[in-house]
Amino acid sequence: MTRSEKTNPNSRSDTRETSEDDCALSKAVCVYLARVGFPAKQWPGMKLRPNVKMKSDETRNRCFLEMNLLGDGRHVFAAAIDYSDVESKLLVRRTRMPDMKYAILIPDGAADDPLPELDNRTPLEAANTPNMDEVARLGVLGTARTVPDGFESGSDVATMSLLGYDPAKYHTGRAPLEAAAQKIPLAPTDWVFRCNLVTVIDGIMKDHSAGGISDADARTMIHDLERAVQVPGLEFHTGVSYRNLLVYRGSENFELATRPPHEILDEMVSRHLPKGIGSDMLQSIMQHSQRVFAGHDVNRVRTATGHNPATQVWLWGQGHPPAIPKFADRFGVNHGAMITGVDLLRGLAVLLGWDVVEVPGMTSFHDTDYAGQGRATCAALDRFDIVVSHIESPDEASHQADWKTKVAAIEAIDEHVVGPVLDKLRSGDQWRLLVLPDHPTNIATRRHGYAPTLFAMCGIGLAPGGSTAYSEAQAVRGQTISEGHELMAAFLGK
């Protein structure tokens, strides 16, 4: 008995030769499947052969069409076709098609160079990461160049790239992505700037995050600055910790070169002030913030408790709102979710048409609730087709040149996020998992690196490549993806 007979055991079926009319019906089925959300490219390894087996049911004037969607002989899609009106009465029924699940885990900035403090090993090599190692053993290990030539290394460029979007085509600046997270309405001509709270001592950039200032303290200081700065068209918007935004809705034009504060640590800020058309306005706001923050109550408390004060704002990452196609339209994977502690990735999720899953206790530092994020990621896989879970703590530890915390963060991610997610996926049939830092962040320089980042992916259709550990040294001997935005298609099997 065929599977199609099992779908309708009461029918009187007889096998007949495939005719030209059957071929036309088969093509109509293909068109219909694509229209209702089952495109042929949706499942890795799928071979759509609509003419393989056809059974006629004379009593109902229908033909049952059997198609092997996954190419493995197990998962069958049964379609019933009404001969009288193919276009309007085509009935399609799923029988045993499991949902394909994709998970992407991003330990931000985890990749690094060998360190003398770690016996010339990288933090990833020094850390105990049995679950990341298992992902590397199960599938493909390699490197992807997520920061193209001409771009500054950062999560805005690198994450856009790893999500399958060419920064050369879609990137307009970091700040507009974060504005999307806050759902700030923007006109095409509006400008958005990242507005960091930073620590500058004796003219030297000492801390790009003002000691990881709390959300509450950041809001107080930004609100006080907004009251003091009276420029038509300017709006300050508070974000997470030191990460805030400045929106300009005026007639001023900007053709600027700006620098991220985390890229100029321990350097004289005078060498890196905004330059170009419109820079006078930005420099004026930054200077004004120095006067407002000097002697501020928040800073007095921070200094007394041994925390870096917020001595001023630093403006950078400017741009107009981007136009980015939805992920479902681009890749055919319909329901996505982002789990992250930073607005940058929340904004990307909004622009891609994904949900943002908030996790209580999740932060961008090592005090985050790793276990809570792992549980939330597993739960999201029950609701969404693709889930991206981003953990910021390794990157922040790198910017502070804190290798001990970086190693501890990597180990916590492996135990509490990678392990549970891998176990969750393996309980199903159709899944793929990708683990990769968006970019390296180097302890030695406290800055983002430009080297290709390592990745490991495993799951259905991905044969083991012989790797034994999730490490930079083994990754460079594996698969090479020179255009980082092409990694997503490879991961999805497109």
Give the SSE map.
Blueprint: H1 3-7, E1 13-15, H2 20-35, E2 53-57, E3 62-68, E4 76-82, H3 86-89, E5 91-94, E6 101-107, H4 123-126, H5 130-138, E7 140-144, H6 155-162, H7 167-170, H8 174-181, E8 191-201, E9 204-207, H9 215-228, E10 234-240, E11 243-248, E12 255-257, E13 275-277, H10 279-293, H11 297-304, E14 312-319, H12 327-331, E15 336-339, H13 343-352, E16 355-356, H14 370-380, E17 386-391, H15 393-399, H16 403-426, E18 431-435, E19 441-442, E20 447-448, E21 453-459, H17 472-475, E22 479-481, H18 487-492
Parallel strand pairs: 6-17, 6-18, 7-22, 15-16, 15-17
Antiparallel strand pairs: 1-2, 2-3, 3-4, 4-5, 7-21, 8-9, 8-11, 8-14, 10-11, 12-13, 18-21, 19-20
Helix pairs in contact: 5-16, 8-13, 9-10, 14-16, 15-16
Strand content: 15-25%
Major beta sheet, strand line-up: 16-15-17-6-18-21-7-22
Class from helix and strand fractions: alpha+beta
CATH class value of the largest domain: Alpha Beta
Separate helix tally? 18
Tell me about the biggest sheet?
8 strands, mixed
> What is the general shape?
globular
Low-confidence stretches: 1-25, 31-97
What name goes with the CATH superfamily of the largest domain?
Alkaline Phosphatase, subunit A
User: From the coordinates shown, what is the CATH architecture of the largest domain?
Assistant: 3-Layer(aba) Sandwich
Arithmetic mean pLDDT: 85
Radius of gyration: 26 Å
Total strands: 22
Tally of domains? 3
